[in-house]
């Protein structure tokens, strides 16, 4: 990457229960911090947007404690939120992107939306460029994957694309083969779950991580549609209340009041049958979704890749592995994922001239026109 290997890139990754911060000098990570946020802390805010200054204060506090000079950066890379269907790549944080976030013109409300304004604020202070990389709205779905039984409700591409793309590249490296020759089933297991089919480098299908697929630590996953319609119509609930119930307070949180896999296993070890049942149901649902993606790839699978924070639990992976072993593909385990390095590398590709930053404005306008 030429002189890009010496560039200082600050990476910020706001998630459902944490803010991850890292400093890279080229491809080398020199500082890394994962600040966990309690449910009580997050409950103080009525919306994701209200968390912005608090999250920025978290970054500045970590920078002060870890000796990060925020005045001398070459770029800031943030996680990208669900704004509009876009191609894979690195996007400049510009005014159309920020305006859409401020005005709530988003596909779903999620903390990843804070990545762009956080990056912009920190970059402006340093006098450098701000980017987001492979946002959650990367859309490479095939047309046949978009249709549902109701024409007015097509399937959306909302996934942990940054993690999936980074995991695919790392798996290709470990397998010693070019990514554009591989057929992969990729499981991102974080606070939300994405199970994706990667065909020849393209994410051709995946569950909507905010609305379908397996139940996850903070998300409900797929639900029986008629029963959910009855719930939605009962009690005068508004959309935002239901959205918070599904994304943030669903899944393990709804059943057990925790999103921590360690706590769940601790309960299981004391004989908590409900915790065991919820975890077994989760394992079953992940395996079923992996089988669905195997069908998308027509049974041709070079590897099953498991990544994300929950994959750090050796016990969870050990219990999941027999449920997907019948797919007949080697397992590539990437616990914790490579999202932070993927964000830094996306920025470095632009700084080095290897790639050009994409403008998101045209994609936001296209979505706006289609909505009207």
Give the arrangement of secondary structure elements.
Blueprint: E1 8-14, E2 18-25, E3 28-36, H1 39-42, H2 52-66, E4 75-79, E5 90-92, H3 95-102, H4 115-126, E6 129-133, H5 161-175, E7 183-189, E8 193-199, E9 202-206, H6 225-233, H7 239-246, H8 252-256, H9 261-269, H10 273-296, E10 303-308, H11 314-324, E11 331-335, H12 339-351, H13 361-371
Parallel strand pairs: 1-4, 4-6, 7-10, 10-11
Antiparallel strand pairs: 1-2, 2-3, 5-6, 7-8, 8-9
What does this structure look like?
- The protein is of the alpha/beta class.
- It folds into two domains: 2-141 and 339-371, Nucleotidyltransferase, domain 5 (2-Layer Sandwich); 161-335, 2-Layer Sandwich (Nucleotidyltransferase, domain 5).
- Helices cover 39% and strands 18% of the residues.
- It is built from 13 helices and eleven strands.
- The strands form two sheets. A six-stranded mixed β-sheet has the order 3-2-1-4-6-5, with helices on both faces. It has a five-stranded mixed β-sheet with strand order 9-8-7-10-11, with helices on both faces.
- Helix 11 links the parallel strand 10 (303-308) and strand 11 (331-335).
- It is globular and about 55 Å long.
- The model has no long low-confidence stretch (mean pLDDT 94).
The major beta sheet can be summarized as: 6 strands, mixed
Please count the beta strands (DSSP E, at least 2 residues each): 11
The count of domains is: 2
Q: Structural class of the secondary elements?
A: alpha/beta
**Head-to-tail CA distance between termini:** 43 Å
Assign the CATH topology of the largest domain.
Nucleotidyltransferase, domain 5
Alpha-carbon Rg, integer? 20 Å
């Amino acid at each position: 990457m030429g002189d890009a290997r010496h560039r200082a890139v600050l990476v910020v990754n706001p998630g459902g229960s944490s803010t991850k911060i890292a400093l890279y000098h080229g491809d080398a990570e020199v500082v890394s911090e994962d600040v966990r946020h309690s449910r009580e802390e997050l409950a103080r805010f009525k919306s994701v947007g209200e968390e912005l200054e608090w999250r920025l204060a978290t970054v500045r506090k970590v920078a002060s404690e870890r000796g990060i000079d925020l005045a001398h950066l070459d770029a800031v890379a943030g996680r990208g939120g669900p704004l509009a269907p876009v191609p894979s790549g690195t996007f400049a944080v510009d005014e159309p992107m920020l305006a859409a976030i401020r005005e709530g013109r988003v596909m779903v409300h999620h903390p990843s939306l804070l990545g762009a304004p956080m990056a912009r604020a920190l970059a402006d202070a340093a006098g450098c460029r701000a980017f987001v990389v492979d946002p959650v709205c990367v859309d490479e779905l095939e047309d046949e994957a978009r249709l549902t039984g109701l024409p007015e409700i097509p399937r959306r591409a909302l996934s942990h694309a940054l993690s999936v793309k980074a995991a695919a590249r790392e798996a290709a490296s470990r397998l010693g083969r070019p990514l554009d020759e591989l057929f992969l089933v990729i499981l991102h297991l974080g606070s939300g779950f994405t199970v994706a089919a990667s065909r020849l480098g393209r994410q051709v299908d995946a569950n909507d991580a905010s609305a379908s697929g397996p139940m996850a630590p903070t998300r409900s996953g797929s639900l029986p549609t008629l029963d959910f319609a009855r719930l939605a119509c009962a009690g005068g609930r508004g959309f935002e209340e239901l959205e918070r119930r599904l994304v943030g307070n669903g899944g393990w949180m709804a059943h057990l009041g925790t999103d921590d896999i360690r706590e769940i296993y601790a309960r299981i070890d004391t004989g908590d049958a409900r915790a065991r049942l919820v975890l077994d149901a989760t394992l079953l649902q992940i395996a079923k979704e992996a089988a669905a993606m195997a069908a998308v790839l027509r049974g041709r699978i070079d590897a099953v890749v498991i990544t994300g924070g929950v994959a750090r639990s050796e016990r969870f992976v050990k219990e999941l592995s027999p449920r997907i072993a019948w797919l007949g593909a080697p397992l590539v385990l990437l616990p914790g994922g490579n999202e932070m390095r993927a964000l830094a590398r996306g920025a470095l590709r632009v700084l080095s001239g290897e790639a050009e930053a994409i403008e998101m404005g045209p994609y936001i306008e296209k979505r706006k026109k289609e909505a009207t």
